[in-house]
Design a protein that fits this description.
The protein contains 19 helices and 11 strands. It is an alpha+beta fold. Strands 3, 4, 5, 6, 7, 8 and 9 form a 7-stranded mixed sheet that branches. A two-stranded antiparallel sheet has the order 1-2. A two-stranded antiparallel sheet has the order 10-11. The radius of gyration is 24 Å and the shape is globular. It starts with 23 loop residues before the first helix and ends in a 5-residue tail after the last helix. Bound molecules: flavin-adenine dinucleotide. Flavin-adenine dinucleotide binds at residues 178-182, 186-189, 217-219, 261, 264, 269, 424, 427-434.
Length: 548
């Protein structure tokens, strides 16, 4: 054990920092959307999710991945997924912070915006446990269309207690829910679903069915119940399928195996079979797709929020590392070309934060006609564009850490975790093309062009490139793009709305650099190609995590 060398020039980890305090972009976006928002809970959560203890849980939950137990030692089926205690510790915090269904139950002002910011902060700790959290948040608008089930289940879905036991709903202190749409033969085109449901009487939860079929992707199978799609005599219908039936017996849901995934390791995603399982109708029979899309809209919001959170985490790690690491005589962050990369990432991160939180706030103002159009328009736009930028962003943030960024080291490699997680938000809940095509459907809604013009109006006259885009965009929206043009249109709507938001929330250095690069063409195909004259120091300074 001879000491061959001294270890130096290796950065200290980013630990025990308040992630809310250090996130100026988030705080500015919250102030813009809801100036009187009570940020104390977010400040508290920021400290929790930035703590070394919670980081340890995030690491352990990803290293000790979920294990499926199909049978017990007596040969009986049990269909249980076992998790490391750290997974449960993360769930306790996420549910305790109200990131699941609490927004629907507590009557605080701006609940969706508040919860969105919390969800984004939590993503910086661990994104995979947020899958069941997101689905439990998202289910309420769809579930309300079976008022009897909703009445029985909403206290558990909004409770801030996490209860992982498999028991009858009324005996539990907290409930979670998932969704089952995707089958082997088709995920985007769910009309191809073959799972079928036969009427089997009715009770106080309404029309009951017996369901037989499968789901090819069924995440968080240990949730207490699921909304699923199945074919009935009237067509594809949305059904409520609990794991434990009202008489206390297990429902006929069998977990075949867990998916071996690229990332999202702490979360269990499964393949399941329903063999004469019992389920109840939610909404109108034969109208299952719009019914379950009321849930899908909310999870798509969470994809945009989650990616924005991961971007912020990647950026913070890159800034933290390059500030400490020296090369060629000075800190990396002092090297002009590295400044260009970091500032460019900071612009992308702030724009994503602004757009995702703007979208989240539209759900708080659901009675306002303009906000209704914004929800419909910006959900596919934000899901498409922010998630599409995520993987590229993660690769570049990783590269700022050099070789250390690529190393897993038993789960310590947070950058590697971010990189593996990033593509997921783009694929699930409607992959990129499906989002762009959904935008075309959104345009059919009356007044979309006028609403978009109204949304962009506050930034008029502030940058020639934004003016140019804003002038033409409502016309392109009105004329309705073809399918071939849908991605480009989604990109342009996203960039215009992001720029208009930055005009109102960010310092001029951020706004003008964003417009010069993304709208005026003074940019290349990779991050780090901002033009000369951009105030990179001001942009980097604003993005620094608080400990710096
Ligand atoms: C980790 C993970 C967890 C998941 N969890 C769940 C879950 O809990 N519940 C659930 O229901 N699903 C879940 N999914 C499934 C996910 O939502 C689907 O994989 C996704 O919707 C895409 O469907 P698909 O895989 O069948 O791909 P396909 O539908 O075959 O699509 C493949 C590609 O074709 C594109 N495409 C499809 N149609 C068109 C078109 N008309 N024009 C142009 N391009 C098109 C798509 O954009 C996509 O890029 C999960 C997926 C993953 C990866």
């Amino acid at each position: 054990m001879s000491a061959s060398h001294e270890v130096f020039n290796q950065p200290l980890p980013l630990v025990d920092v308040n992630l809310f305090d250090g996130n100026r972009a988030m705080r500015a976006a919250l102030k813009f959307n809801a100036p009187s928002l009570d940020t104390a809970p977010l400040q508290k959560l920021g400290g929790t999710v930035g703590s070394g203890e919670m980081q340890m849980h995030a690491r352990l939950a990803n290293v000790h991945t979920p294990v499926l137990k199909t049978h017990n030692r007596f040969g009986e089926r049990v269909d249980l997924v076992e998790f490391h205690p750290s997974y449960h510790a993360l769930m306790v915090e996420a549910v305790g912070a109200g990131l699941h269904g609490a927004a629907w139950g507590e009557g605080a002002p701006n609940p969706h915006l508040q919860r969105a910011a919390g969800f984004m902060l939590f993503t910086e700790l661990e994104p995979s446990v947020l899958c069941p959290i997101s689905m439990s948040y998202a289910v309420t608008p769809a579930l309300k269309d079976n008022p009897a089930i909703h009445n029985d289940w909403s206290p558990g879905l909004t409770s801030r207690r996490y209860d992982p036991t498999l028991r009858l709903w009324r005996d539990k202190s907290g409930l979670t829910m998932g969704m089952g749409m995707t089958e082997k033969q088709g995920g985007s085109d769910v009309r191809a679903n073959t799972t079928h449901a036969e009427p089997a009487g009715s009770d106080n939860w309404g029309q009951r069915y017996t369901v037989t079929g499968h789901k090819w992707f069924f995440s968080a199978p240990m949730c207490d119940a699921f909304l699923i799609l199945a074919q009935t005599a009237s067509g594809l219908s949305c059904l409520f399928l609990p794991r434990v039936l009202p008489d206390g017996t297990r429902n006929q849901l069998f977990i075949q195996r867990l998916k071996d995934k690229l990332g999202n390791k702490a979360n269990a995603s499964s393949e399941v079979e329903f063999v004469n399982a019992t389920a109840w109708l939610v909404g109108e029979e034969g109208r299952g797709i719009p019914q379950i899309l009321a849930m899908g809209t909310m999870t798509r919001l969470d994809c945009a929020l989650g990616t924005s959170g991961l971007m912020r985490q990647g950026l913070s790690l890159a800034l933290h590392h390059t500030r400490q690491r020296k090369a060629f005589g000075k800190a990396l962050i002092e090297q002009p070309l590295m400044k260009n990369v970091l500032a460019d990432l900071a612009l992308e991160s702030e724009a994503a934060t602004a757009l995702a939180l703007r979208l989240a706030h539209s759900f708080d103002r659901a009675n306002d006609p303009h906000e209704q159009v914004m929800t419909r328009l910006l959900t596919p736009v934000a899901k498409f564009w922010i998630c599409k930028r995520g993987s590229h962003f993660a690769q570049e943030a990783m590269e700022c850490l050099g070789g250390n960024g690529y190393v897993e080291e038993g789960g310590e490699g947070v950058m590697a975790r971010i990189y593996r997680e990033m593509p997921l938000n783009s694929i699930w809940e409607g992959a990129g093309n499906i989002m762009a095509l959904d935008l075309l459907r959104a345009l059919r809604k009356a007044d979309t062009a006028a609403a978009l013009a109204h949304e962009l109006a506050p930034a008029r006259g502030m940058h020639p490139a934004l003016d140019h885009l804003a002038e033409r965009l409502p016309l392109r929206v009105e004329e309705m793009a073809t399918e071939m043009e849908a991605r480009r249109l989604a990109q342009d709507v996203a960039l215009a709305v992001q720029a208009a938001l930055l005009a109102q929330t960010a310092p001029s250095a951020v706004f003008s650099a964003f417009c010069d690069s993304r709208l005026a063409g003074q940019w290349g195909y990779s991050f780090g190609s901002l033009g000369a004259g951009v105030d990179v120091d001001a942009i980097i300074e604003r993005a620094m995590p608080s400990s710096e």
